[in-house]
């Protein structure tokens, strides 16, 4: 067969090492330095929103004010209760002709402290936790942990908490059972080896100065928190405190081809989405919008999750600034219906040692580009969007016309998977939506891996999407 026809007919997998030039590979490496810095600065959604606003304001964005103008090139942001964020650049076309939306989530699996978390047992103080999102409990033992969060005392003045990240900080720890005594434990199913209720964080051993007996160690931990943050045990009831891995993100692999670190689901998509928006040097044809949501790992419920109405309410406010017939509500509905959304979420990467849960013919792989996937739910495509063919075709053209390396992904064998993304929530607003993101190894673990080439291609893909005509 003629090679030209052969190449036309086939849709081959392409490895970044052969697809990208040496200059592009170097650019991907340089690009990921900023990403690693971002990843180390934002281990919770509140931290990510604060950092996102800081960078946005540096790039000329201002807080949205109800009733303000929204003319081509205007840059605004909307802060949804400090845990979700919308960034928008007004396009040349009227808002009612549609919006280019890239949506990612900021929350990651972690261990949250309970309402009354601190207790003392056998001469040691512990923080009791409740896991957030899908985790393997045994992965959280025997590693250094940091305490992040936000405490709101009765006076309403919030206090940011971070212990365990600075080199001089102490870290926390969940003890595991030594293998010499773990024969019975290691014969249990993985989910039962460490019970979720036993993920209690060792906080300290020293009694409070001048105190002894039961409760003295717990009192000392409370003293330390009071001296550092001015909070009491009662204030921990009105707090959002989480335990996360204390180690930093960094280059992974002897060739430095990957990034390893905590929280890459889904900040590995959030960062390039935000960065692509900031890279626009002139007003795009369509309004360009980045949505950072919360609560995705727990079903997207709550005021800062995508089941809330904060996004469509904001769009309808923007729509009131547009001329033409109809109310703001009507213009907002037209704007949403004419929009296009990329749900920027990670997908799993094939790994040969776990081949039995993958479809080896169709799974995404590290270093093969950004992953396009039409659906990711469970069973018979439950709890998923299943993007329309027309939407897929539009995105294929954008990626190919821009020279973006991309691949497809399934997310595991049929009936082996159980997951979901933000695309279904945007589809419920009558917005054509599709998933496109970075493949990960060890997703939801305390240390995830992504290829630098794939992260860079996500940035390239989102930039091309925002520039669509």
Quickly describe the structure:
The protein has 469 residues and is α/β, with parallel strands linked by helices.
Describe the structure.
- This protein is α/β, with parallel strands linked by helices and 469 residues long.
- The chain has two domains: 3-108 and 262-466, Aminopeptidase (3-Layer(aba) Sandwich); 110-245, Aminopeptidase i, Domain 2, CATH 2.30.250.10.
- Helices cover 29% and strands 22% of the residues.
- The strands form four sheets. It has a nine-stranded mixed β-sheet, with helices on both faces.
- Strand 11 (250-252) and strand 12 (258-261) form a beta hairpin.
- Helix 3 (22-41) packs across helix 13.
- The protein is globular.
- The two termini are 37 Å apart.
- The Rg value, from CA coordinates, equals 24 Å
Shape: globular
| Count of individual helical segments | 13
Beginning-to-end CA distance, first to last residue: 37 Å
Beta-strand residue fraction: 15-25%
Q: Briefly note the structural class of the backbone.
A: alpha/beta
Mean pLDDT over the residues: 95
- The CATH topology of the largest domain: Aminopeptidase
Top-tier CATH class of the largest domain = Alpha Beta
Sheet with the most strands, sense and barrel status: 9 strands, mixed
What is the CATH superfamily classification of the largest domain?
Zn peptidases
Number of strands: 20
Number of domains: 2
CATH structural architecture of the largest domain: 3-Layer(aba) Sandwich
């Amino acid at each position: 067969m003629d090679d030209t026809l052969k190449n036309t007919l086939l849709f081959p997998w392409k490895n970044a090492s052969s697809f990208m030039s040496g200059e592009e590979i170097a650019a991907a490496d340089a690009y990921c330095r900023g990403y690693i810095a971002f990843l180390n600065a934002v281990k919770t959604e509140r931290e990510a929103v604060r950092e996102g606003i800081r960078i946005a304001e540096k790039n000329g964005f201002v807080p949205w004010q109800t009733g303000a103008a929204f003319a081509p090139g205007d840059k605004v942001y909307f802060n949804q209760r400090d845990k979700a964020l919308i960034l928008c650049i007004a396009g040349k076309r009227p808002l009612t002709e549609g919006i280019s939306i890239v949506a990612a989530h900021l929350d990651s699996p972690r261990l949250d402290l309970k309402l009354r978390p601190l207790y003392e047992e056998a001469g040691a103080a512990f923080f009791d936790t409740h896991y957030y999102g899908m985790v393997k409990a045994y992965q959280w033992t025997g590693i250094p942990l940091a305490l992040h969060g936000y405490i709101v005392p009765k006076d309403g003045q919030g206090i940011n908490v971070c212990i365990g990240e600075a080199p001089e900080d102490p870290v926390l720890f969940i003890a595991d059972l030594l293998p010499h005594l773990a024969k019975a434990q290691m014969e249990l199913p993985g989910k039962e080896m460490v019970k979720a209720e036993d993920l209690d964080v060792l906080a300290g051993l020293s009694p409070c100065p001048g105190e002894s007996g039961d409760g003295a160690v717990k009192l000392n931990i409370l003293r330390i928190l009071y001296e550092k943050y001015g909070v009491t045990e009662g204030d921990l009831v009105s707090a959002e405190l989480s335990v996360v891995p204390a180690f930093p993100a960094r280059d992974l692999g002897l060739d430095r081809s990957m990034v390893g670190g905590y929280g890459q689901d889904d900040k590995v998509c959030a960062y390039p989405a935000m960065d692509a928006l900031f890279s626009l040097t002139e007003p795009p044809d369509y309004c360009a919008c980045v949505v950072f949501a919360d609560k995705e790992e727990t079903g997207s419920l709550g005021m800062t999750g995508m089941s809330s109405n904060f996004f469509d309410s904001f769009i309808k406010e923007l729509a009131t600034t547009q001329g033409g017939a109809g109310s703001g509500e009507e213009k907002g509905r037209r704007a949403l219906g004419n929009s296009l959304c990329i749900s920027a979420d990670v997908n799993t990467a094939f790994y040969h040692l776990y081949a039995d849960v993958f479809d080896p013919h169709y799974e995404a792989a590290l270093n093969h580009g950004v992953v396009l996937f039409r659906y990711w739910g469970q069973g018979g495509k439950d709890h998923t969007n299943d993007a329309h063919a027309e939407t897929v075709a539009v995105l294929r053209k954008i990626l190919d016309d821009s020279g973006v390396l991309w691949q497809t992904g399934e997310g595991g064998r049929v009936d082996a998977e159980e997951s979901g993304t933000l695309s279904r929530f945007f589809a419920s607003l009558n917005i054509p939506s599709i998933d496109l993101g970075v493949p990960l190894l060890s997703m939801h673990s305390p240390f995830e891996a992504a290829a630098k080439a794939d992260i860079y291609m996500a940035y390239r893909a989102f930039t091309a999407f925002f520039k669509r005509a």
